[in-house]
Structure to design on (131 residues):
């Protein structure tokens, strides 16, 4: 469980399909979202919301998660051990943040602010454009 800090923004909640993985985080009322076309994001329909570790809290035991790594092994893809949903993970691009799936946040699309497309199929060349 994290050291949750509320910076006065909106408190979002979400998790996996079965409820074994639940989290909350603080963020602006409209979320910046990245749509990546890499193999795993394209196949799962993942929509990235970058959330600093300091404003994220896992509300359920971490034992509910299973981890998958591929390629460089730097990204920690975290899936619910029960239903298989990846509601958040540790990306290699932002070691001090999690990437939360907009589709796993309660109210999902109603919180969408700006949507940016990212060329994850050519990650090395495109990564320099990430903020």
């Amino acid at each position: 469980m994290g050291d949750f800090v509320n910076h006065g923004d909106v408190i979002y909640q979400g998790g996996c399909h079965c409820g074994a993985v639940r989290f909350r985080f603080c963020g602006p009322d409209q979320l910046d979202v990245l749509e990546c076309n890499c193999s795993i994001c394209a196949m799962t329909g993942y929509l990235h919301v970058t959330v600093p570790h300091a404003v994220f809290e896992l509300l359920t035991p971490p034992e509910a998660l299973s981890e998958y790594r591929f390629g460089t092994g730097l990204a920690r893809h975290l899936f619910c051990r029960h239903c298989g949903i990846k509601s958040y993970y540790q990306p290699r691009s932002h070691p001090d943040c999690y990437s939360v799936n907009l589709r796993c946040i309660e109210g999902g699309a109603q919180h969408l602010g700006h949507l940016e497309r990212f060329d994850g199929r050519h990650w090395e060349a495109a990564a320099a454009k990430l903020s």
